[in-house]
Amino acid sequence: MEIIMSVVIGFLFMAAVYLMLSKSLIRIIIGTGLLSHGAHLLILTMGGLGGTAPPVVAEGVSISDYVDPLPQALILTAIVISFAVTSFFLVLAYRSYQELGTDNVNLMRGTEDDD
Amino acid sequence: MINLLLFPVLIPLLFAAILLFFPKNIRMQRSIAALGAGLALIAVLFLIAKVKTDGIQAVTLGSWDAPFGITMVSDLFSALLVLSATVITLFVIFYSFPTIGVEREQSFYYPAVLFLLTGVNGAFTTGDIFNLFVFFEVLLMSSYMLIVHGGQKPQLRETIKYLLVNIISSALFVSAVAFLYSVTGTLNMADLAVKIPQIEATGILTVIAVLFLIVFGFKAAIFPLYFWLPGAYYAPPIPILALFGALLTKVGVYAIMRTYTLFFTMNTDFTHELLAIIAILTILAGCIGALAYFDVKKIIIYNIIIAVGVILFGVSQLNEAGVNGSIFYLIHDMLIKAALFFLVGIVAVIFGTSNLRQMGGLMKTYPVLGWVYLITAFGLAGIPPLSGFPGKLLIVQGGFEGPQFWGSIVILVTSLLVLLSVIRIFVYAFWGEPVETVPLKKSTYRQMMIPSVLLVALTVFLGVGAEFFMPLISGAGEVLLNPSIYIDAVLKE
């Protein structure tokens, strides 16, 4: 299971890097989304997979059966944050498309005193 | 008052939330924002007195004991930084009244400033590495908003780059936390400091340490990772720039100092030598930038990068003089960067441009501004008895006692370059032929001068009264050098 997860994480990171290297702003945003998904899956995997019982003390369940609850709590926080940042980025991209008239990041270069 | 250390985080949060309700009422916005920062300042002063007498304060939220609950810890080091951050925010709020413009004030400027203070104070206070990430995001979110606030073309363009850099570094941060958790099984900083020495495989820990250095290095703008800073900081108006220059990079520096003294000490031959080399390269890169530009804002912005290098070099030596010097220099630098940006902002407003070549002859019309600027510039370069001197002296001493003595020589030489870069502003803007200036109302000038002069006076006091502050500084350094004090305070039960 860990092997599959590693491959998935690696694939997500690869796709994210590919998308973030492109010129279109919307592809970059999708890339950042994939990047944070990869990071979230990484937390889940690093906490150790396996375990079937919920992390609640009950009779007849040994410690080795529990799911590690901490990575899930961390992912929950990280997902909310990346969701907020992504939505901010989308609004920012739309505003700068209106203002600058382009979504091509190559055309957004230049020194500060150009305009 | 067991929750005292939470007040500097919660008070700005509360007041920012109140401010969200009536964005159009400028008088209320201004007074409540100033009140919020002022109350936070009072809370910090109580906190420092408490920490000084009773030692490190720790709160575990929800009363779950240390390794399991989220811990907030306030030792002298973090309390002093919280104090400087709050003082600077208060001054920035006062400086914003005449400079930021009514339109910005009416669209949630002050709430964003207070949310930024919440994030900064929280990042300084937290004792849990994942919570550090959360507070980083709180302050980054406010900084995205502040940097794009006003929506001018350069601001939008630079915010996209700033946002992208920080999203990538946040993803790296989450990944680094994941690796750390898989190796140690804990995220509480004190617990990490206990568990890490027990782990035999230091190789993987070194990798994680370098990963964290990259993550915090993005925020702190260390050598190869500072590329986003000059552009992003140039875009917003001066009060926001002062706030960023004084606070944002320093949070990254604080995080490096905390992690590299508390728990990433298993392979100092590699990690701390790397840190020292990067610090020296950062200083050199900053000097090149500071000398290359003929723009008052750009020159001071590159001086931020130089200061980051100087502070991190002191930490990398891991001896008493170096660490104490770093703490002193960190506090000095926060204050003096804000003061310099304030003064440069006044100069830029008077000339209507930040280009040095179009300036000249201000000494005749604004002599007070000239002299105050000169004092600040001397303080930045570390001319005794001003505030840059004691910190730099200790850092240099630490370098000579430590393994990288050549670094101290670089710091001494580059101090002259720092002095040259800021004196250039003085020579071009205040000497020479008078140039036509933009008329500035007497009351506006006074409103801008008062916070600047007070802040400069504070830095002068910090330098001249260094003997008076030294017990606090060395108390803070003691905790960094002896992690067991920190560990005992957090894991006491």
Task: Characterise the protein shown here.
- By secondary structure, chain A is mainly alpha-helical.
- Chain A is built from three helices and no strands.
- Chain A has helices spanning 2-20, 25-46, 69-100.
- In chain A, helix 1 packs antiparallel against helix 2 (25-46) and helix 2 packs antiparallel against helix 3.
- Chain A is elongated.
- The two termini of chain B are 19 Å apart.
- By secondary structure, chain B is mostly helical.
- Chain B has a two-stranded antiparallel ribbon.
- Chain B has 21 helices and two strands.
- Helix content of chain B is 77%, strand content 2%.
- Chain A binds chain B through residues 20, 25, 28, 32, 35-36, 38-40, 42-43, 45-48, 70-71, 74, 77-78, 81-82, 84-85, 88-89, 92-93, 95-96, 99-100, 105, 108, 110, 112, 114-115, and chain B through 130, 133-134, 137, 141, 144, 148, 151, 153-154, 156-160, 163-164, 167-168, 170-172, 174-175, 177-179, 181-182, 187, 231, 234-235.
Produce a short descriptive summary:
Chain A is mostly helical. Helices cover 63% and strands 0% of the residues of chain A. The interface between A and B is large, with 38 and 33 residues.
Which characteristics define this entry?
heterodimer; A: 115 residues; mainly alpha; 3 helices; elongated; B: 493 residues; two-stranded antiparallel ribbon; 21 helices; globular; membrane (chain A); NUOK/Mnh_C1-like (chain A)
Count of helical segments of chain A? 3
Number of strands of chain A: 0
Spans of chain B of 5+ residues with little confidence (pLDDT < 50)? Answer: none
Beta-strand residue percentage of chain A: under 5%
SSE topology string of chain A: HHH
Family (chain A): Belongs to the CPA3 antiporters (TC 2.A.63) subunit C family.
Keywords (chain A): Cell membrane, Membrane, Transmembrane, Transmembrane helix
Transmembrane segments (chain A): 6-21, 28-53, 73-94
Membrane topology (chain A): Multi-pass membrane protein
